[in-house]
Amino acid sequence: MAVNKVNEDLLRERARYTFNIEELTNFIDGGEEGTRNRREVEDMVIHVKELHDEVPEDYLSHKERYENAVKKGCILIDLLKEHVLRHSSFDAYKPSNMYRVLSMAKEVSPVLLHMGMFVPTIFGQASAEQQEEWLHKALMLEIIGTYAQTELGHGTFLRGLETTATYDPSTEEFVLHSPTLTSYKWWPGGLGQTANHCIVVAQLYSREKCYGVHAFLVQIRDSETHMPLPGIKVGDIGPKLGFQTANNGFLGFDHFRIPRKNMLMRNAQVLKDGRYVKSKSDKLTYGTMMLVRVMIVSDAAYELSRAATIAARYSAVRRQSMPRPGQPEPQILDYVTQQHKVFIAIATSHALRLTGGWLWDAYSSLTHDLDQGNLDQLPELHALACCLKAISSRDSNSLVEQCRMSCGGHGYMSSSNFPTIYGATAATVTYEGEYTVMLLQTARYLMKAWKEALGGIVLTPTVAYMVTYNKAKPAWVNTPEAIIQGFHAVAVGKVKEAADGIEYHQNSGKDYEDAWNAASVMLVKASECYCRAIICETFWKEIQKHSRSMSRNLAVVLQQLSELYLSYWVLERSGDFFQVRTVPLTRTKFEFVSFASPKCHCQMCTGFVAHITSVVVLAVQVSIQNLTLTFCTRKRNEFDIGSC
Ligand SMILES: CCCCCCCCCC/C=C\C/C=C/C(=O)SCCNC(=O)CCNC(=O)[C@H](O)C(C)(C)COP(=O)(O)OP(=O)(O)OC[C@H]1O[C@@H](n2cnc3c(N)ncnc32)[C@H](O)[C@@H]1OP(=O)(O)O
Ligand SMILES: Cc1cc2nc3c(=O)[nH]c(=O)nc-3n(C[C@H](O)[C@H](O)[C@H](O)COP(=O)(O)OP(=O)(O)OC[C@H]3O[C@@H](n4cnc5c(N)ncnc54)[C@H](O)[C@@H]3O)c2cc1C
């Protein structure tokens, strides 16, 4: 059998790296232990022939694709259980680890929602007694669940959900009902044919009063026959852009009864007699969504790292055109335009991975606070989770598309894996909070923060700079730190512009809701700029922090990637920076001037040139589970990414 010979160009590129590959691998995996765990699981999986398709999945019927995905999910989970029993070194039953294992199959797993949302909801919203009853069964997949919140008529507007859960004290049961067609649950992953339980989000009624949306754990299919229980209508919603094996389904209730104890009661409760016990905060019901949004940032990084690997590798081996007659066709990696497409994808995968880790730490700290009854950090974390989920998923999806295009026709092949990665990242921009809606949620927070800044009130960490910029314009010199300050100034300017926009519309006679709507494009922009500033600052600071404990050669390359990221986004947002009026470059002062002002001039941008020499590079060696970029640093022509 012919042995796959590694491409000469790839070998040559790999021979050029200037730093320790294993060190970078450990950095990406979050340490040596992370690499060891990942490799153990990869080694366990990679040799299982049933996980490799004989026939391309695109040539299978919908039913065959689903069955194939179920088969692979079962194999992976059995391998994981066996591995845990054998080694117990890999915490298999952490949802994120289980999720990572399931994502080793090319197809989206029909049990993705079980691990991604059903189990986390039990962790986050079930009482101790309820966890005692359900958690082990869920972790062992003795029950398979999903998260049924979205309805045909409502996905964003949760307060508008129509499914009802009406408490009957005579039987100590909730009666679940779908009063309209638009109240049918629509989208939940695994609901089509896979799940036999689900978390149902419904309007809670007791003693004729509505208490808003709450979560319930509901069995929908018979544990033996897997048939829908009486009073349950359930099935598959049909083909989609991607995610074809996620098994998204619909669910309708016809006066379906569940025991009182199936209301998730960590936060709020309904007593036997129907009395409602309020939660510390209604917002705690939204906890699972915040968790998944936080996880999505890391997931966006992971999916982008896969695409960047494919594109960088292809760019090393593809030769095309003949700039010099008679000369060999050059590697397309030598074209600056190709570098401009691919390098930012590599840099962004690192930026989002590190930001995702930072956000996860903030979320972990919040959950600890919530357990102590301290909700102080909840509003800021909600705002952060919303904008970072939105921007990371959108950046990831658009850069995946950019990577695909950088591979020409071969990028359009299913075998490139770009279509699968694109389909997965496109979904992420919408699910768990639609892009614009999420940015508007963050804008709510920013408008409040701005009002506090004007009053000189000390603000939470990620908006504290608003007080500074609102009072004294900082002096800065042209350094990465200064660029970050520039992003802060732009964010403040956009927040101010949006707040002024709302005020302008109110002064012209609109009520607040209409004024908000009229200014909503500016509000979205303000959130985008606030979020970009966070990613830029976090990426830079994380690299500075980790550089101190890594070899110099690796630190240099990672520093270059973070400088590339900063420079790229200054140039992408040069219009916003143009709005930042400066004095002569030596002592630059920021003053944000809205477009309305004729005085706008900019020196920071003129001559703003970021020379990124000997950038990054090249060939890559991809591991299944994670991006382990094997860089060969290759002296590239100095390229000027230009002034604005
Ligand atoms: C390594 C592992 C990787 C794993 C990767 C992922 C694994 C799983 C992936 C599975 C794949 C697909 C699953 C998809 C699932 C779904 O899509 S589930 C459904 C998701 N749906 C949504 O996100 C709905 C979005 N809409 C909303 O959230 C609501 O519109 C919103 C609550 C934002 C606003 O609703 P309104 O009724 O208008 O209320 P509003 O007045 O705006 O806000 C009320 C108030 O509450 C605060 N708030 C809102 N949400 C939260 C929250 N989540 N946490 C905390 N606080 C929240 C808001 O700020 C307001 O507060 P204020 O003080 O009044 O300003
Ligand atoms: C692949 C996939 C998997 C999913 N899995 C699940 C799942 O497992 N469980 C689940 O419960 N749900 C799931 N969903 C549903 C998902 O959560 C919703 O699609 C999402 O919340 C958006 O809601 P919507 O579809 O109703 O869109 P809408 O909210 O109707 O959005 C449509 C448009 O209206 C705009 N809009 C809406 N509200 C506002 C506003 N207040 N201000 C300004 N503009 C607004 C939006 O910006 C958007 O442009 C999934 C969706 C997808 C695509």
Automatic annotation (TrEMBL):
Top-level taxonomic group: Eukaryota
Family from the record: Belongs to the acyl-CoA oxidase family.
Compartment annotation: Peroxisome
Stored SUPFAM superfamilies: Acyl-CoA dehydrogenase C-terminal domain-like (SSF47203), Acyl-CoA dehydrogenase NM domain-like (SSF56645)
Keyword Flavoprotein among record annotations: yes
Positions of the Acyl-CoA oxidase C-terminal domain: 480-582
UniProt keyword annotations, A-Z: FAD, Fatty acid metabolism, Flavoprotein, Lipid metabolism, Oxidoreductase, Peroxisome
Functional pathway: Lipid metabolism; peroxisomal fatty acid beta-oxidation
Name assigned to this protein: Acyl-coenzyme A oxidase
Domain Acyl-coenzyme A oxidase N-terminal positions: 20-144
Acyl-CoA oxidase C-alpha1 domain boundaries: 286-447
One Pfam family recorded for the sequence: Acyl-CoA_ox_N
Cofactor: FAD
Keyword rRNA-binding in record: no
